[in-house]
Amino acid sequence: xxxxxxxxxxxxxxxxxxxxxxxxxxxxxxxxxxxxxxxxxxxxxxxxxxxxxxxxxxxxxxxxxxxxxxxxxxxxxxxx
Length: 80
Known about the structure:
With 80 residues, the protein is α/β, with parallel strands linked by helices. It has three helices and four strands.
């Protein structure tokens, strides 16, 4: 399951992948009940720094989270 973190709805609309869950970073601690601990989440942000922090946070709370190195920026460059 892809999990896209963004600070703005505009960033999500511009860069998201289909099937991705969008959740602003600031709301994540209050929305953990919306996630399934039996699912592996691939965490993406724009450049990858924020997704690294969020993946660590989720892992520390018993979730299976994988930080996608480089984020959407690297993914776009690789696809070009």
